[in-house]
Design goal:
By secondary structure, the protein is an all-beta fold. Among the domains are: 9-50, no CATH class; 263-331, no CATH class; 369-398, no CATH class; 403-440, no CATH class; 446-475, no CATH class; 496-530, no CATH class. Helix content is 1%, strand content 30%. The protein is built from 1 helix and 30 strands. The chain has one helix at residues 52-59; strands at residues 9-11, 25-28, 33-40, 43-50, 100-104, 108-114, 125-126, 141-147, 153-160, 164-168, 173-177, 191-195, 201-205, 263-270, 275-282, 291-296, 351-354, 359-362, 369-371, 378-385, 391-398, 429-432, 437-440, 446-448, 455-462, 468-475, 496-498, 508-510, 518-521, 527-530. It has a 4-stranded mixed beta sheet with strand order 1-2-3-4. A 3-stranded antiparallel beta sheet has the order 5-6-7, with no helix packed on it. The longest helix has 8 residues, at 52-59. The protein starts with 8 loop residues before the first strand and ends in a 7-residue tail after the last strand.
Length: 537
């Protein structure tokens, strides 16, 4: 294609673009470098591929020793200057030209002469730390050492061990010789001592001291300022008064795995010839059932109440004001005097009657016989019931008003009439004037303009009855964007149509007659025709 121009993304002062699309090229005028967006080893980045910076280096290359310049060979293939790097000897040498001494110094010293003809070891001699050689420590001494940062002992000495031990008790002090004397542990009031075969000193108390095991009896008052924790299976409190500040008493604290323990409280009373038990219980496995029992012959001391023995006679009476909850599974029906029905079952579909004691189900015994027909225009003229209110017979007749029955006046609106017997105008519209229905004659209207397929009504006049009295028509034009139009009357020939600056602005167009122009977006975000430009970075 003739006169084809390819533009790159470019910058005047920025040296390197921060990012480029894959395959996108860019040129920095300040750096003189050409870049391309590429992917290397799975990592996208900006890579330098050329530019005047590198061509200038190549053009400036000479065979002279020029700083920061590329060296090239001259016409004879030679170049000049210093060469830095590692040179390999391509010939073989058995020894060095001059032998050298290699040595070490510091905490260890040594030296050896090397000419390259054979391997050599440096003999090391450790430096003297000034510590006197010998044995330190013993039965009556403790050895002390000083060590420097390199792990060497820089001093050593013996420190004598004390042979006297000071001892003290709640009363009295003493000193003993470790090598010749013995410490004796003597028991006191209710305490004995002994030495075990494992060289342990054992202290025991006799039965005059309160132990943590076995049966003990404490005489006198006991005041516990901390927590008293009793972990036995039974706690017996033989007292006449129990006082606690706890507002909620927790029972069955060990009922945490499953629901296997009964919960409640009870007491005994001799209400006749023997002691019986009375209380409130929630039996294990019945989370929603609590039983209030009385006169129970079995003592629930084993934390189990056999509810199979709790009958109606063993069920206690609760007197309380019940303000909520559910009442179900009662042993007896709630009587009428207590607000119930007195019955325990009823027949589906039957109604209830009071038999003097309770409510009972009763079927409808009435057999209704209709005289006449029950159609949409009929009404019931008579009705017969028995003593229970059952319908036994009724008569139906058609609803009708004979002309002879309307002897004067009109059938009013409230009776389904028009309240007007004066007649109506043929083709007229009926209107309720507040009292009766009357004829309302049609009205004429005046049309201004024309009503065609591409016209619309621009004005419409109606009277108080909703009748059209005038109308105006006009051609449809100038629709805005919000109305489904373009909002613009004309466009540039051969132009490209695009949206306005806002969502409701009129559509507009842009065109170009210059060869090679392409549609681009300028810095303001507006479409425009221009030669291809890669943009800035």
């Amino acid at each position: 294609m003739a006169n084809t121009v390819i533009q790159l993304k470019y910058a005047i002062s920025t040296a390197t673009p921060t990012s480029l699309q894959l395959g996108e090229a860019a040129y920095s005028n300040s750096a003189g470098k050409l870049y391309i967006g590429a992917n290397s080893n799975g990592t996208a980045g900006v890579y330098t591929i050329g530019g005047s910076y590198y061509t200038g280096l190549v053009d400036a290359a000479t065979d002279a020793n020029t700083a920061s310049a590329i060296v090239k060979r001259d016409a004879s293939g030679a170049f000049y200057g210093r060469l830095y790097g590692t040179a390999n000897n391509t010939s073989t040498a058995n020894t060095w030209a001059t032998a050298r001494n290699i040595g070490v110094s510091g905490d260890a010293n040594g030296v050896v002469s090397v000419d390259g003809s054979a391997n050599a070891n440096i003999p090391l001699v450790l430096g003297n730390t000034a510590v006197t050689a010998g044995t330190y420590g013993g039965a009556s001494n403790i050895a002390t050492f000083a060590v420097d940062s390199k792990g060497r002992i820089t001093s050593a000495a013996n420190v004598a061990i004390s042979t006297t031990l000071n001892i003290a008790a709640d009363t009295g002090t003493n000193s003993i010789a470790l090598a010749t004397e013995t410490i004796t542990f003597v028991g006191g009031d209710g305490i004995t001592t002994s030495i075990t075969p494992t060289d342990n000193v054992r202290f025991d108390v006799d039965n005059t001291v309160l132990r943590t095991t076995g049966n003990q009896t404490l005489t006198g008052d006991l005041s516990v300022t901390g927590n008293l924790i009793v972990q036995g299976e039974r706690t017996i409190v033989n007292t006449s008064t129990v006082s606690t500040t706890d507002s909620l008493i927790k029972l069955a604290a060990n009922n945490t795995v499953g629901d296997v323990i009964d919960i409640g409280f009870y007491g005994g009373a001799n209400t006749g010839s023997a002691v019986t038990y009375h209380g409130l219980i929630r039996q294990a496995g019945t989370a929603n059932t609590f039983i209030l029992f009385k006169n129970f012959s079995q003592d629930p001391s084993s934390n189990v109440v056999n509810t199979a023995y709790i009958t109606v006679a063993n069920t206690a009476t609760l007197r309380a004001n019940i303000t909520g909850g559910m009442v179900y599974a009662l042993a007896n029906a709630i009587s009428v005097v207590d607000g119930g029905t007195g019955g325990t079952s009823f027949t589906t579909g039957q109604y209830l009657v009071y038999d003097g004691t309770k409510l009972v189900s009763r079927a409808n015994t009435g057999t209704a016989t209709v005289t006449g027909a029950l159609a949409s225009g009929n009404t019931i003229t008579s009705l017969t019931t028995n003593s229970y209110g059952d319908v036994t017979a009724f008569t139906a007749a058609e609803i009708a008003i004979a002309a002879s029955q309307v002897t004067s006046g009109n059938l009013v609106i409230a009776r389904g009439g028009t309240n007007n017997n004066g007649g109506y105008t043929t083709g007229g519209i009926l209107q309720f004037d507040g009292t009766k229905f009357v004829s309302l004659a049609n009205s004429s209207y005046t049309l201004t303009g024309a009503l065609q397929a591409n016209n619309t009504v621009t004005a419409l006049s109606v009277d108080s009855y909703g009748r059209v009295t005038a109308a105006t028509g006009a051609a449809i034009s100038g629709l805005t964007v919000a109305q489904g139009g373009t909002g613009f009357a004309s466009y540039t020939a051969n132009g490209v149509i695009f949206g306005g600056v806002t969502t409701t602005s009129p559509l507009t167009s842009v065109a170009s007659s210059t060869e090679g122009h392409v549609l681009q977006i300028n810095t303001s975000g507006i479409p425009t025709f221009a030669h291809l430009n890669g943009g800035y970075f």
